[in-house]
Design goal:
The protein has 203 residues and is mainly alpha-helical. Helix 2 runs antiparallel to helix 3 and helix 7 packs parallel to helix 9. The longest helix is centred in the N-terminal third of the chain and has 23 residues.
């Protein structure tokens, strides 16, 4: 009975690729991990196949692809550095504007709709308006601070929103007919709108 060839020991064909030979060596090594003699035969067969492939390559019997023989020829030239085009808005504005999730929009909206409903309640007096504004400011402070845990920044944005809301609301409120809504209630509603925008879209 003739001795098995290295290819037969590794259970691969003679035209098997190098990857297939390596996979067979690994697979058989795991299969016979406790059999020292068998592992020695597998390693010897693997070495014999490598030597046989090297001899065939030197004799020109195996054509080596150009990408293997001359890998430096196919190395792509280094990509030239192209700076990213500047965005349309300055960096400080990009840090200020937030891309809110649905909950970041809906939760503050629900709070300010509720406060707005209280402020335009027919029996609402100046004390109730002041209370709803205070609650609106506190809510805005909470929602903005929750995003990045920067209390000082949250205070600044909230106070800015309050001032803008009161000033613009006062200006626009003078144009509204008192028969429809009082100026004070309009100012409160407009301020709630500004505070909602600040709490939802700024950070």
């Amino acid at each position: 009975m003739s001795e098995p060839t290295p290819y037969q020991l590794l259970e691969v064909d003679e035209d098997a690729s190098f990857d297939e030979v390596q996979e067979a060596r690994t697979r058989l090594g795991e299969q016979y991990s406790g059999d020292k003699k068998r592992l020695e035969l597998i390693e010897a067969a693997y070495d014999a196949i490598l030597m046989d492939r090297l001899r065939q390559r030197q004799e020109g019997k195996i054509k080596v692809p150009e990408r293997i023989r001359f890998p430096e020829r196919l190395t792509p030239p280094p990509a030239s550095f192209t700076p990213s085009p500047p965005s349309g808005s300055p960096a400080w504005l990009q840090r200020l504007i937030d891309t809110p999730s649905r909950s970041d929009i809906l939760w503050p909206a629900g709070v300010y709709v509720g406060l707005g409903g209280l402020s335009i309640y027919p029996a609402a007096n100046d004390g109730l308006l002041q209370l709803t504004l205070a609650l609106g400011v506190g809510s805005c402070l909470y929602f903005v601070n929750r995003k990045e845990q920067k209390f000082g920044r949250a205070v600044l944005l909230t106070v800015s929103g309050l001032v803008i809301g009161l000033l613009l609301g006062g200006f626009l409120g003078s144009l509204v007919s008192p028969a429809f809504i009082t100026t004070e209630k309009f100012i409160a509603l407009f301020t709630f709108l500004i505070l909602w925008l600040v709490s939802g879209f700024l950070r």
